[in-house]
Amino acid sequence: MTDSAFPEAPFSAPTTIELAATPLAVVRYEGISLDGLPAAFDEGFPALGNLVGAGALDPTGPALALYRGEPEGIFDLEVGFPVSTILDGPLPAGDVSVVGSQLPAGPALATTHVGTYDGLGAAWADLTARAPALPTGVWVEVYVTDPSVAPEELRTDLILPLGD
């Protein structure tokens, strides 16, 4: 078992990890569906990038998306970055606010998907089928590579927090 949600090397197979309650700086969206993801990503990540560029945020790891609820239905979404300490309060970033959050602590199953984002659904289905315990309703995608790389080289780590 590894204790890192942000390893340097890809997960070679589904791996049990222990998540730490890592502080996050995120833009939060409530009650959206898969159709709303492009707009949320296109709004949230540039706002976060502006704060990073201005020195107001100092990410300690790669960009991520944290889904709460049913990803095929309606869910809450947080897009952001891990940071060293949780934010004291909201940071304005254009038309959105960046707020503090955290990864849920506890056991999780993780894997790596390399390829286009279109393949994430199948990768999630495979990971959930291998889960040794019930998922908690939280789904984490860690976008390890910059989205400007060739689509077939995109690395996304998938993390599925598990219940008892």
Instruction: Please report the total strand number as a whole number.
Output: 9
Report the order of strands and helices.
EEHEEEEEHEE
**CATH architectural name of the largest domain:** Alpha-Beta Barrel
Shape: globular
Structural class designation: alpha+beta
Helix content: 10-25%
Instruction: Please write the CATH class name of the largest domain.
Output: Alpha Beta
As for the number of domains, it is: 2
Kindly report the CATH topology of the largest domain: Multidrug-efflux Transporter 1 Regulator Bmrr, Chain A
CATH H-level superfamily title of the largest domain: Regulatory factor, effector binding domain
Total DSSP helices: 2
How would you describe what is shown here?
- The radius of gyration is 15 Å and the shape is globular.
- It folds into 2 domains: 1-20 and 104-137 and 151-157, no CATH class; 22-103, Regulatory factor, effector binding domain (Multidrug-efflux Transporter 1 Regulator Bmrr, Chain A), CATH 3.20.80.
- It is of the alpha+beta class.
- It is 16% helix and 38% strand.
- The mean pLDDT is 92.
- The protein has helices at residues 37-53, 120-129; strands at 15-19, 23-32, 63-69, 75-82, 91-93, 96-102, 106-114, 138-143, 155-161.
- A 9-stranded antiparallel sheet has the order 1-7-9-8-3-4-2-6-5, covered by helices on one side.
Name the descriptors.
alpha+beta; globular; Multidrug-efflux Transporter 1 Regulator Bmrr, Chain A; GyrI-like; 2 helices; GyrI-like domain-containing protein; AraC_E-bd; 164 residues; 2 domains
